[in-house]
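Q: Please design a sequence for this.
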């Protein structure tokens, strides 16, 4: 009995931490691209159930702790992108295309290699630019609603020091208490708390496909699937990446019509199910990921109540909780963007290049400048031709690398 109780408890913790720490990001992202309250609740329910089904299937099929989650960086991208041409139906069409691209990455290894070929500093800088607006929300909340925001931030700071994994859930509890003490909840009924499924017929517009679907796919692959694979490998597993991509891509495709933006390998909570705390025996840790999958699907049934909580609070307060949840991801993205490794050439050389000179160990100027340009353009939130800043930031960083690529000596 004890042999199973430890991984089951680890799975419950994984599900609770994963849901509570970032569902506010999902709701904020869906609302930003045009979803109504009911459609946002439907989207949260969809990604919860889809991730739970994928985690359960992959864990049972491969006997490996393969944790699945919604794309938190992808939801942050939705916040940064804002309304798209064509409204919510066009956003749903972008979700659908993103799911199909993930399936294609699982079917055709060349597509996965093409994503991996994006210079790591540029990809990380794009992610950092996407996360920055949300990560400034705690500061704005402290100025706009100090009485509500101060307890939330203090709670996060204390738990971040002594029990880091519970810091964001505890901050969410503090925000819930603050909202309950300052609102009456008049006009709310039982119907507002029930799970809701709100289907939408997708439409396809070029700005939404280029400015939302492609960046969502790239962010999900680079910030979730690749790190999630690395976490599993770090604990000695050989994760079946192609089957995982096909399963999560199919789930994302099927869930797009009801508002699900993307599901993928978990990166933030993956270690909770794959590490030794889940079970001393690595062959028993899959029980934790399967339990987490079932738990996440059940927690998704509370999407209506979660959406009601968001509606009762000042928007900046919920964004503040989301920003606290993403501070670690922002730090990691900035660190990767300014890494010391020199970037690969954006265009392969026509002939073999001479051996590079010994590195001095300092940051490569091309990599650093391209990353900074990507970060600035993405974080600016500019929208050109209906396409959001994430796409233009990625393009600007790539062009910087191209423009300042060292000339090769003539033979």
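A: Design:
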């Amino acid at each position: 009995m004890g042999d199973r109780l430890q991984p089951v408890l680890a799975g419950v913790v994984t599900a609770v931490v994963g849901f509570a720490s970032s569902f506010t990001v999902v709701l904020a992202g869906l609302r930003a691209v045009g979803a109504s309250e009911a459609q946002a609740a439907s989207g949260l329910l969809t990604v919860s159930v889809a991730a739970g089904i994928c985690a359960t299937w992959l864990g049972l099929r491969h006997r490996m702790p393969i944790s699945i989650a919604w794309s938190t960086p992808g939801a942050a991208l939705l916040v940064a992108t804002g309304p798209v041409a064509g409204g919510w139906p066009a956003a749903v069409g972008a979700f659908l295309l993103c799911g199909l691209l993930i399936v294609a990455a699982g079917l055709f290894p060349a597509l996965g290699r093409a994503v991996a070929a994006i210079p790591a500093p540029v990809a990380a800088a794009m992610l950092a630019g996407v996360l920055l607006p949300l990560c400034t929300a705690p500061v704005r909340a402290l100025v706009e609603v100090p009485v509500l925001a101060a307890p939330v931030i203090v709670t996060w700071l204390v738990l971040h020091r002594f029990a880091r994994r519970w810091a964001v859930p505890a901050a969410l509890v503090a925000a819930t208490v603050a909202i309950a003490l300052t609102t009456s909840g008049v006009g709310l009924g039982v119907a507002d708390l029930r799970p809701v499924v709100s289907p939408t017929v997708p439409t396809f517009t070029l700005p939404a496909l280029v400015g939302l679907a492609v960046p969502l796919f790239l962010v999900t692959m680079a910030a979730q699937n690749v790190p999630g694979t690395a976490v599993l490998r770090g604990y000695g597993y050989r994760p079946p990446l192609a089957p995982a991509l096909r399963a999560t891509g199919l789930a994302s495709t099927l869930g797009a019509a009801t508002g699900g933006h993307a599901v993928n390998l978990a990166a933030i909570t993956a270690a909770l199910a794959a590490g030794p705390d889940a079970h001393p025996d690595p062959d028993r840790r899959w029980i934790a990921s399967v339990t987490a999958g079932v738990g996440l699907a059940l927690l998704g049934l509370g999407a209506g109540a979660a959406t009601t909580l968001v509606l009762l609070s000042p928007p900046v307060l919920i964004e503040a909780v989301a920003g606290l949840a993403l501070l670690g991801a922002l730090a990691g993205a900035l660190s990767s963007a300014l890494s010391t490794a020199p970037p690969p050439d954006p265009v392969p050389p026509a002939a073999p290049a001479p051996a590079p000179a010994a590195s001095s160990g300092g940051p490569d100027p091309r990599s650093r400048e391209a990353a900074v340009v990507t970060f600035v353009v993405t974080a600016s939130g500019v929208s050109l031709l209906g396409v959001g800043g994430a796409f233009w930031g990625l393009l600007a960083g790539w062009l910087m690398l191209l423009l300042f690529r060292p000339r090769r000596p003539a033979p």
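Q: Thanks. Anything notable?
A: Residues 342-363 have pLDDT under 50 and may be disordered. DSSP finds 17 helices and two strands in the chain.
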